[in-house]
Write a structure and sequence with these properties.
By secondary structure, the protein is of the alpha/beta class. It has six helices and eight strands; from the N terminus they run E-H-E-H-E-H-E-H-E-E-H-E-E-H.
């Protein structure tokens, strides 16, 4: 079994520890995990982090759609998303009333495909950073650059992401003091 759907089975009613135990029991053969429509937005950021950390490292695609995650603060989402295993490269957050500009900085760097409101966004940070570095002059004093000023090699979002926060995106070796 490579795909497991735990969709709409009220996982949000479980405690963070119970949820973590359930996710830790997922077979190592699973690469696609569907946790959609489980009211996970009712959990605290710490509970979500505990649960997400228990997801097997074989999982590469995670579906968290329709979980009410828009009820979480930025800090709670950051805490929860940081615990997603680095093996996860595709994340479905549709049906959570989130937008790319709200969550861009909160996602783990390993996430290369994000689905929000059923629009797929390929957000490979290395491609973005390399392209931005090659497009900019050595003066990085501006902290915001309009997306229209940078011709990215792909469509980041259709109107959802208006600004790229350059200083937060560039590796330490590339930022100016």
């Amino acid at each position: 079994m490579t795909s497991l759907s735990l969709c709409n089975i009220n996982l949000g009613d479980k405690t963070g520890e119970e949820l973590a135990q359930a996710l830790a029991a997922i077979p190592a053969t699973v690469t696609r995990l569907d946790l959609s429509w489980n009211k996970l937005g009712e959990k605290t950021g710490a509970e979500l982090a505990l649960a997400f950390a228990a997801i097997p490292t074989t999982v590469t695609s995670l579906n968290l759609s329709g979980n009410g995650l828009d009820n979480k603060t930025g800090a709670e989402l950051a805490q929860a998303f940081a615990a997603i295993p680095p093996s996860v490269t595709s994340l479905d957050l549709s049906g959570n009333d989130l937008s790319m500009d709200n969550i861009w900085q909160l996602l783990p760097e390993t996430i290369s495909t994000i689905v929000i409101n059923k629009k797929e966004h390929h957000c490979n940070r290395n491609i973005i950073l390399n392209y931005i570095k090659s497009s900019l002059s050595s003066d990085l004093s501006a902290s915001l650059i309009p997306l229209e000023a940078i011709k990215l090699p792909f469509d980041v979002a259709e109107g959802n992401l208006n600004l790229i926060f350059i200083k937060d995106r560039l590796p330490m070796a590339c930022t100016s003091e």
